[in-house]
């Protein structure tokens, strides 16, 4: 089975404008979760620790009076929310935001490990942890799962090892802390100052220099509050392992394969096929920013599941990199074809994001086929770079 690309160049030219119109955002940050579905209260950290409660109060200047500063912050910023009903800790035994306020600067990062946008942010977080942990910065990775398999503690732990994450990670499987922070995005960063106020909020990738500048500013404020004389220097560096992505050239949005968020399946037989196995026949042509299935598939809320030994997924896209979030019952393998030519073999053996294609700086319009072998293979979402 293969996707035919009859009249391929003209077809893509005619549909390129449509692809641009439906592009979700230039920086691909609106991966939305369950904030509307889960309503729980999380304790608001109401009061920072008093200066007298610090371990070394003698180091604080006697004429330090922060009451007016705190009153001013009250009128400008929200207070930090406490971590609610954690489902596990990695790199730490326990953690409470309240225990850090008055002592540390806190960066709360909401992420989920199969999210490519989150993965591209991790090199910067790792670098900041290495540079500033001894200066008073605590990074807290709030892992709020997008997919069911991301609730598994061992899966998350494996991901932290894979990406070299050494700062504390807290599992937020029920979205309670996510909801307390009124979040709707992966990734999202909140900076909490020495007094316990959320003074900085950034959605998605990018703004790394701006974020680091704010971190250093808050660390120096902390030093003044604690009576420390030395200052933290700002030295902006891009991590060696930080990927380069030209978001302006990506014309295909994140594409989900489960019926809960599927929008771009071009050959869906009928609504009778939801949650049950149906046979999908490959069309003669594939429109830009749509995907097709070939073979016997069962489309569930989160994913499309191959219910036969072989099958095909095809997608017409405009980008330079293609990734797919995958889960398998045991293992599966596939041939990857680009514009009618085989380019590689790949094996899937764990629940994770897999890179299928990387054309470097060559952005363009293409048809990608995944020719699969492996009953029970599950595909969740395509992402692009």
UniProtKB/TrEMBL annotation:
The keyword Isomerase applies. PROSITE patterns: THIOREDOXIN_2. InterPro entries: AhpC/TSA (IPR000866), Thioredoxin-like_sf (IPR036249), Thioredoxin_10 (IPR041017), Thioredoxin_domain (IPR013766), Thioredoxin_ResA/DsbE_sf (IPR050553). Residues 49-220 form the Thioredoxin domain. This is Thiol-disulfide isomerase. The keyword Isomerase applies. GO terms for molecular function: antioxidant activity; isomerase activity; oxidoreductase activity. Keywords: Isomerase. Transmembrane segments: none annotated.
